[in-house]
Amino acid sequence: MTETLLPATLIELATRVVEANRAAGRRIAVAESCTGGLVAAALTEVPGSSDVLEASFVTYSNEAKRRMLRVSNDVLETFGAVSVAVAWSMARGAQAATEADVAVAITGIAGPGGGSEKKPVGTVVFGVAEKGVDENDIHADKRQFDPALGRGGIRLQAALCALELLLPPEGDTP
Fold first, then answer.
1. DSSP-assigned beta bridge partners for residue 126
2. Burial grade of 106 (CB within 10 A; 0-12, 13-18, 19 or more)
3. DSSP code string of 64-111
4. Tag placement on the chain: N or C end, fewer CB within 10 Å?
5. Residue 150 class from Cβ within 10 Å (0-12 exposed, 13-18 middle, 19+ buried)?
6. What's the CA gap between 6 and 41, in Å, rounded?
7. pTM for the complete prediction?
8. H or E stretch including 164?
9. Between β-strands 102-108 and 123-130, what pairing exists: parallel, antiparallel or unpaired?
10. Measuring CA to CA, how many Å separate 155 from each of 142, 170, 173?
């Protein structure tokens, strides 16, 4: 592998994602908030990633989530940016905007500030949208990472989780 600034574990998983999705004939998209493009950066470190990566959105602000991914203002105001509803809406928006086969979204609180009692630092929510799956069939998961990991550690763990979600299901490759 050529020189990279990113951790080896991130590049190794991104390589698996690119190879597995290429073998499955799947195109992917990513919508990132708290990871700020880290998932896309890892994927694009892999030679040939353009065979698989359709697009990446870094929608850090709520306005960007509304404008670029069509996350409704009602959902943002009702549930907050770090919620299952917003992560799922971000994933659906990325999938719809790109026509990718699968899109993963990440939104969370990497810290060191910004947390609350209900949503402490380290709270990260993931959403997955797949072409051909009923849009009412919500695929989202909330994780709580240890705040002691620090901002960089939380972002790295969130990126690794997002990459795992981009792996095709077992038996989905020809």
1. 106, 141
2. buried
3. HHHHHH---HHHHHHH-SSSHHHHHHHHHHHHHHHT-SEEEEEEE--S
4. C
5. middle
6. 8
7. 0.93
8. helix 150-165
9. antiparallel
10. 14, 26, 29
What the block records as the tokens of 68 is: 């670029």
Cβ neighbourhood burial of 140 (10 Å; 0-12, 13-18, 19+): buried
Residue 169 DSSP one-character state: P
Alpha carbons 127 and 83: distance in angstroms, whole number: 10
Residue pLDDT tens, the chain, 174 long: 458 889 999 999 999 999 999 999 999 999 999 999 999 999 999 999 999 999 999 999 999 999 999 999 999 999 999 999 999 999 999 999 998 999 999 999 999 999 999 999 999 999 999 998 887 777 899 999 999 999 999 999 999 999 999 999 875 554
Q: Which residue has the tokens 């190879």?
A: 19
